[in-house]
Design goal:
35% of the residues are buried. The chain is 38% helix and 11% strand. It has eleven helices and eleven strands. The radius of gyration is 19 Å and the shape is globular. The chain folds into two domains: 175 residues, Cytochrome Bc1 Complex, Chain D, domain 2 (Orthogonal Bundle), CATH 1.10.760; 86 residues, Cytochrome c-like domain (Cytochrome Bc1 Complex, Chain D, domain 2, Orthogonal Bundle), CATH 1.10.760.10.
Length: 285
């Protein structure tokens, strides 16, 4: 018990700036992919947003990490894009179909799609993210087995689909179905403190945005770059993996991927990044 309280005190000190949390702030720079495509990484916030300006997590990373994302040849996440394209064109399942069988022109069909998810799914009566939509298509149209959470091919295909919308502004339609109610639930979860450390998403990404906790620079927590290649893990990381990792770090019991709580959180957090350009595959520390 004493060890637990000591850890909580240390974490609190890191957040509160008592010698451990250093003042930081986003760098003043522009993200231009391959010297050709500028990505909107700073935009005015919509009405009701806690910030006046929405800033991509790219601005909070080191110069070396920012440079990796700006160069498609160097960006390790592009390997997942290539693998995702292979999967898109590969026949799988008893129906003898691939994704391309129904949506042959991926560049045209997928353009803008990744920027608009999660979307309302009337059949399921809940929001669907890209991963859930992929699994529904695999089961219903391809008669193939759904991917298990965070399967390598699931991450690669999701990365490929999101990449087709690179640079396009994130925009979640809250008028669809019951999306607004899910947004409300996600907002509630975002500000709810959990775990032994008694932290909420807002504790890091809002209250102490721009500061350092140990060697990590706290961003606004926008998700326009997911799936994201994390150097720490040397692989692509899905959004729900990151959600669960953050919840784990508060020493709380984390919910299952694609649970109603995490889907509601995805709706709300995606809205918080409205207007930012899709960066997938982003590179983060």
């Amino acid at each position: 018990m004493a060890k637990t309280y000591k850890s909580i005190a240390l974490f609190s000190a890191l957040l509160m700036g008592t010698g451990a949390a250093l003042a930081g702030g986003p760098v003043d720079d522009k993200l231009v992919i391959d010297g050709e495509m500028e990505i909107q990484t700073r935009v005015a916030a919509p009405e009701g947003h806690p910030f006046d300006e929405i800033i991509s997590g790219w601005h909070y990373r080191t110069e070396e990490t920012r440079a990796l994302e700006a160069d498609s040849f160097q960006n390790p996440g592009m390997l997942y894009v290539e693998r995702g394209e292979e999967i898109w064109n590969t026949v799988d399942g008893d129906a003898g179909k691939s994704c391309a069988s129904c949506h042959e022109d991926a560049g045209e069909f997928l353009k803008g799609l990744g920027a608009s998810y999660p979307k309302w799914n009337a059949d399921a009566g809940k929001p669907f993210n890209i991963e859930l939509q992929i699994n529904q298509c695999r089961e219903k149209n391809m008669q193939a087995k759904p991917y298990k959470f965070d399967a390598a091919d699931q991450k690669a295909l999701t990365t490929y689909i999101k990449h087709q919308s690179i640079g396009m502004p994130v925009e979640v339609d809250l008028t669809q179905g019951d999306m607004q109610a899910w947004w409300d639930k996600g907002k509630e979860l975002y500000y709810t403190r959990t775990g032994q450390l008694n932290l909420a998403c807002a504790s890091c990404h809002e209250d102490y945005n721009g500061k350092y906790i140990r060697a990590d620079h706290l961003s606004q927590g926008n998700v326009n770059g997911f799936p994201t290649y994390r150097l720490k893990q040397s692989e692509m990381v899905s959004l729900h993996n990151r959600f669960r990792g953050c919840i784990r770090d508060t020493r709380a019991e984390f919910p299952a991927a694609f649970s109603d709580d995490l889907m509601a959180l995805e709706v709300y957090v995606t809205w918080r990044g409205s207007g930012l350009g899709v960066e997938t595959p982003a590179v983060r520390q």
